[in-house]
Amino acid sequence: MKYVLLICLWWPASLMAEDVYYISHIQGVVKKKGQKKALQVGEEVYLNDSLSYDKPDSYLSVCSPEKGNFILKRDKTAPASKKNEFLVAVKDILVPATKTGTLGVRGGLLNNLFDLENYLRTFSPQAPMLVCDVRRIALNNTSFVNPADRFFYITYRYKQQDIDKKLSFSKPVSSKDTLFLLLDNTLYQVDGKPIDPAEPDSLNLYYRIHTENKNSLVSQVYIRYCTSVELLPELKVLYNVWEKAFTGKPDKEQLITRELRDHLVAHWGRLDEDTFRKLYGQVLRK
Question: Among the CATH numbers 1.10.10, 2.60.40, 1.10.287, 3.30.70, which is that of 113-225?
Fold first, then answer.
């Protein structure tokens, strides 16, 4: 009897415990089998869990300190239930996430419209400009003078309407040469009411010289808007996972921030470095 007891105590806990994965991003509505409540960022899923998806393109992004990043998409061959849900087992759809290889965008001073056009062309539908609360694009104040006379505006289609949105400027006290072009939630307001940022399409940026009644197309723009309230829970989950995974590594912080940046690009878009650092500081303060 004593001999058997010693064997049980020696048995590695890792072989008795089930792998746990932490949810870092959710697209659509995903539930565990038999539960009415939708899964939330930060919750856990296990290999033996079964998940139901509300749409074919819904998915979960999950991470594990031991295993890495994974995407949980429904099996395309899985039939829909009577409730039009797609039920699949986690162990059957656990797919490693691919690395994006795309970092955030460090904002440099843009001297003219040509620089601004080239900057906007670095974004795409697959890697849009991520505007978190507000994004400041630094312009050379000596080139973009007299904002009252010359300004930028964005046009887009919303519910079969053509919408024009004039953009604001902000001038920092610390630099006489810099003028910030601002992108924020006012871009997604129509008749004073907020709209879903995902609904507008065909966004284009124009530069207008009012006294000459001249409008110049700068570039098509690909923007995804979100708030820090949406991003911070995801970044905190990832930080906790990777802080544990990279314990003892000399370049621990660099490895963690790389994982966080890759996550943002894969699921949201390309965030400017200043905003990323601000969010990262909030994550560290917990």
Answer: 2.60.40
